[in-house]
Amino acid sequence: TQNFAAPAAGCLWQGIGGTVTGFDGNPLSGFRVHVFGPNIDQTVESGSNTLYGQGSGWEVPVGNQISVATYFVELQSPQGTVVSPRIQVDFPSDCARNLALVNFYQTRPS
């Protein structure tokens, strides 16, 4: 996906962002999104970036240039328990595809 988060950065930015949505379709804030891979191991909370979604948006910049790289993303409960499969994100080193969207949807009641 083309980077709508920081379009002025062009090829000087690469990142992963998305939302967390509950079983009822409402945004879930306070969940932990763990992104890790080459030179990054970062956790942010859902709801920390409204550009991706009011109440549940999140973003992790993974580089200040485009590159061919593989990252992993997993959703954790507010207490840190992993509650999703590990998602693999592969970047193709393309300025027009420097943003990966990963949206988490709750598939069963908690």
- Mean pLDDT across every amino acid position: 92
Strand order in the largest sheet: 4-3-6-7
**Poorly predicted tracts of residues:** none
Secondary structure: helix percent: under 10%
* Strand portion: 35-45%
Q: How many strand segments? A: 9
Q: Looking at the structure, what is the overall shape?
A: globular
Could you tell me how far the N terminus lies from the C terminus, measured between alpha carbons in angstroms? 31 Å
Major sheet description? 4 strands, antiparallel
Secondary-structure element string: EEEEEEEEE
Radius of gyration: 14 Å
Number of helices: 0
Secondary-structure-based class equals mainly beta
Record the SSE blueprint:
Elements: E1 14-18, E2 20-21, E3 32-37, E4 40-45, E5 58-63, E6 68-76, E7 87-92, E8 99-101, E9 104-105
Parallel strand pairs: 1-8, 2-9
Antiparallel strand pairs: 1-5, 3-4, 3-6, 6-7
Features:
110 residues, mainly beta, 4-stranded antiparallel beta sheet, 3-stranded mixed beta sheet
The gist of it:
By secondary structure, the chain is an all-beta fold. 0% of the residues lie in helices and 41% in strands.
